[in-house]
Amino acid sequence: MFHGRRGKSSRLRLALGSILPSAGLAAYDAAFVFFCAMNQPARGSLLDIEHLDSKEILRLLKLARGMNPRKPPPLLRHRRIALLFYEASTRTRSSFEIAAKALGAVTTLVQSSGSSIEKGESLIDTGYTLRAVGADAIVIRHPAAGAPHLMARHLDIPVINAGDGMHEHPSQALLDAFTILRHKKTLEGLQVTIIGDIYHSRVARSNCRLLSRFGAKIMLCGPPELVPQVSATLVPGLRITRHIDEALRGADVIMLLRVQQERLAGKKIHARDYIARYQMTAPRLKLAKRDAIVMHPGPIVRGLEVTSEVVDGSQSVIVDEVRNGVPTRMAILARALGKGK
Ligand code: MLT
Fold first, then answer.
1. Ligand 1 pocket, 258 CB below 6 A?
2. Cα separation, 117 vs 313, whole angstroms
3. Could you tell me if the CB of 297 is within 6 A of ligand 1?
4. Cβ–Cβ contacts within 10 Å for residue 273, how many?
5. Is ligand 1 within 6 A of the CB of residue 184?
6. Which atom of ligand 1 lies closest to the CA of 202?
7. d(Cα 169, Cα 161) in Å, to the nearest integer?
8. Cβ neighbours of residue 169 under 8 Å, at least 6 residues apart?
9. 272 CA to middle of ligand 1, Å?
10. Number of other residues whose CB lies within 10 A of the CB of residue 74
């Protein structure tokens, strides 16, 4: 019934279809590696920061700067964008939807609950379905790392990663860079401190990759359960500290992260200890540079990783980040559909 773009063997598709809905990580990875070797993603796909050329990053940031969500150019009129969300989302989903509609595109939202995914349809078959009904691009969020990459290798339309498990969240890193550059002249030499649950954070992974590429110096801070020593291997030059005072001294940019309770899988983090050692408070913020900015990708758990005083304080750019999600995602979608000149 479904056809991939280069005559895939239906036997393989069936095998994958039966694996994916219930696969363990090993089976998933094996399928991922196998299919990665088969096809290149369609031009305009945005799968991760790791493999995105620096020139492309700069081009996207420039394009985003030129996007005015109040006076949007109708670049994507009559184009159809499917938003395929297997995980909860507020900011990412709404800003992709608003960005697409601002550019004149039609969107359709498919969530795992209430769709054929609930009946066991595989990731790939869902992709073929969306392609068959006329989607010109798919924005996908999935709990498994690599899911957007897998889908991209089966479809001839661009696939945009809106967060894949603990792997990457490229559009968040782009909008964070966009936000930083609204407040700081350059990324080169900036001291960026990321505090919190780095281990489970796709946002941290994408940000470390993007910001370090352009010369930012990154310090990670948190307890070993959330910032294991191996995190230091993520990008060259990255430093780790367990002491928030050390992390904050001299910081230009402070990124706070939520403790991802849903991914803790048995790890015990005691809120009282975490608050005592790592909560971002107004007195602690004074250790950073006077013009330091405070960021958070959301969702924020006020009173845990950060106090309301900091969230709503004058150094917080958290609302800006959310707002900047729209022009950044307009740029990503325009590029995806060949309008990113
Ligand atoms: C994400 O989707 O990764 C979020 O923006 C961060 C979080 O869930 O804490």
1. yes
2. 42
3. yes
4. 11
5. no
6. 3
7. 7
8. 92, 161, 162, 163, 202, 203, 205, 206, 297
9. 22
10. 11
Atom of ligand 1 nearest to the CA of 260: 9
Asked whether 203 lines ligand 1 (CB < 6 A), one says yes
Question: Is the shortest distance between the CB of 143 and ligand 1 below 6 Å?
Answer: no
Q: What is the pLDDT along the chain (341 residues), one digit of tens a residue?
A: 233 343 443 333 433 343 344 444 444 445 545 555 568 999 999 999 999 999 999 999 999 999 999 999 999 999 999 999 999 999 999 999 999 999 999 999 999 888 888 888 999 999 999 999 999 999 999 999 999 999 999 999 999 999 999 999 999 999 999 999 999 999 999 999 999 999 999 999 999 999 999 999 999 999 999 999 999 999 999 999 999 999 999 999 999 999 987 777 777 788 899 999 999 999 999 999 999 999 999 999 999 999 999 999 999 999 999 999 999 999 999 999 999 77
CA of 12 to the centre of ligand 1 (A): 33
Cα(293) to centroid(ligand 1), Å: 19
- Residue type for position 166: M
Smallest Cα–Cα separation from 292: which of 257, 251, 321, 255?
A: 251
What number does the ligand 1 atom closest to the CA of 172 have? Answer: 5
Domains, the chain: 10-168+325-336 (3.40.50.1370), 171-322 (3.40.50.1370)
205 lines ligand 1 (CB under 6 A): no
Q: Which atom belonging to ligand 1 lies closest to the Cα atom of 197?
A: 9
* Identity of the amino acid at 278: Y
